[in-house]
Amino acid sequence: MKTLRRFAAATAFIWLLLFNVLPAAQAAGESGGSVPLPAAGLLQGGEATALSPSQLKAIDRSLLEKGGLSGVGKPGAERETVKEDSLSDGKPAGERSLVQAPRQVSTFEAYVASREGTDAVRQFGYDLFSAAAAFAPDTEVLPVGPDYLLGPGDELSISLWGKVNVDYAPVIDREGKISLPYIGVLHLAGLTFGEAKQLLLQTFSRYFKPSEVKVSVGMGSLRSISVFVVGQVRRPGSYRLSSFSTLVNALFAAGGPGKTGSMRAVELRRGGKTVAVLDLYDFILRGDKDDDLRLMSGDVVFVPTVGPLAAVTGNVLRPAIYELKGKVKLTDLIEMAGGVGPMGYLGRVQVERVHANESKVIVDVNLKDLAPANDIVIRDGDIVRIFSIFQEVTNYVRIEGNVSRPGMYEWKEGMRLGELLKGGSLLLPDTYYDFALIERRVPPDFHSVYVSVDLGKLLHEHSEKDNVELRPYDTVTIYSKWNFIDKEMVRVAGAVGRPGEFEFRPDMRLSDLLNLAGGLKKYAYAEEAELTRVSPTPSGPEVEKIVVYPAKALARLPGYDIHLQPDDYLFVRAVPEWGLYRTVTIEGEVRFPGRYTIEKGETLSSLIERAGGFTDKAYLMGAVFTRESVRELQQRRLDEAIDRLEQEIVSRSAHTIEAALTPDEAAQQEAAAKQRKALIAKLRAVKAQGRVVIELKSLDKFKGSRFDIPMEEGDRLFIPERPVHVQVIGSVYNQNAYVYQPGATVASYLDMSGGLTDLADEDAIYVLKVNGEAVSQRTSSGGLLAIRWDRYNKRWVSGGLMASPLDPGDTIVVPEKLERVAWLKEFKDITQILYQVAVTAGVLLVAF
Hints:
- The chain is 23% helix and 25% strand.
- It is an alpha+beta fold.
- The chain has a five-stranded mixed β-sheet with strand order 9-8-12-10-11, covered by helices on one side. Strands 14-13-17-15-16 form a five-stranded mixed β-sheet, with helices on both faces. It has a five-stranded mixed β-sheet with strand order 19-18-22-20-21.
- Mean pLDDT is 79; it is low at 1-99, 780-785 and 843-848.
């Protein structure tokens, strides 16, 4: 029952802690205060009740989840979090591994960031405690010095050897004593390790002769101590640390001071008195740990509120925000920041400060003339800026152009151009000696002027007039003669390795040109070539055609390797009918579709035979044959028509906008002009297919027919499956595709689509046949009631286009009346262009 009552009481205390103490801890954290965490024991009925490790972990986990380990900082500071895994490793709090915490931003850091435009300037020293480990001493490795103070929990290691061989490992109990066989009880707590060792050796010497038994005294496991870390730290509370731990170890265990905590006045309190004050700046900047005392159980580490702060930015080695201690002058603060960097400007150091909590002022200081007597005292909230020196080099002259080592050179008083050119040794071949240029910037506004120099007279005749005295920032330009003289060229084209232009040289021969062009190709006609030569005469240029012999010229045979003249043009022909191979593609319903090579003059029927002939699903009427040369011709004609239309639209649009009498009319005309431009853009997006209409039949009928044409490089033949639909698009009530019905006419399919709308242009209806042809009503001279020959079905039909039966895959196109669109009715070519688009590209373009 007693155990049950204790468990119930402990549980009640935990719930009380979670729902009462922790909210207070959170409130204290938000207000900048601190609430210490409970120690490893809880009071129950006036006595300490020890909690198991699992219960301690549960408390730690609850604290984490409820925010009990929140960072303490100024308003706006980010909370610092620790992963749960770091609190469940079974180690004392002082030895736990800590994960990297999110960076806190203090109010002063945010202020400096807003003034400097960067958040890189942080409070100095706080990042030291962002390390991933708790920085606890390794008690298993560190040797124990003679000044180590023994206490309850320390284990000694005593070994005797000689006539007696025995090992003892006594642990100092709570009363500060150990018990040894034959020796009895010894009180060691409060003694240093050196004193305890001496006592043990003296005691053993009373019972054993030193000549017979040797004694060795060492330390085994060391005790842990309980210390409190409170004040402005990230995780205030009670920590169990190694007895070797110091002030710095305790701070690491608690996450270090928060941004509102001081780095320069960390107090160690023992027995109600302050026994040490640690300045962490001494530790960080100079490695001084004289005040980093070793802790004792029950010690309190207190971190007070941070002192005055001042920031140093710009060209110093350690730009940061520093905590001020005592009277700090400007030079002291700069020295604390590592001193001025090599690019820092000493002539103007600026101090921005808040004056009397009313306004901000700046103070400019010249560090070069600063004496101790007028060294200003830094105040809380100051921002010290170290500016950069002027980045441009001020004592240089530059040389560029046709020189071996262009760039900047040191300018010296009285320096002249000849000295810079080093007697001409910097000049490259082909230098233009008649002229060199100096660009000079003239103060006070540093406008540019030019100084011309005769470079030849300067270098060859030592002309003092041209040996100009240089000034800072002068730029000397040396030119190549090819900057002023056009190079003479010869050209070669045809079956050579690298056709193109080559620079003409005196005494240049035909073989030289052929070698420069990479020699003859293997298919070059080496027996004969043509050289074109143009010679100026008083009556005009005279063109001469010269037959040359490349093979003999390359062999350097006398009389064949002729001299060339500027602007000669050599054309080397290929052997007759040379070509590696041509490829065409056949796809769709053939037995072996793919890409085939063809011989010159090979026809479509030959390709179909090589592809294994048609399959039983082939729809020959719908075959699509495209050719690249036809596509280029169609596209060129389509572009020409669109160009004509665009010119007409632009000219008419400009005229109508100028002729507008009112602002409303002008706005309407501008809107119409935008619509016309959109139409032109849509037309230009359409690309021709290059389709050639052919009537494909069975091989025995197709072979030798007028459609059995010779093939060209890039030709493509596609034989589709038989489609099952006829499509109706345009100005009908229901644009759709309908299942093909044998014998159904154009009128029948229009009736299926609901008939023509009021906006339909009945006279412009046409049919795009599946083989690529276009059939309109105007192709029948008799109009709607004409009698015409239907060459697809091999019979006479009456009624014109509307009575024509269709084939599977045909498309009926019903255009709209363009007269309904005010901005199109003046352009008579638009109907022809839209019709041409539909035929050449196979698409219906919706123009509006």
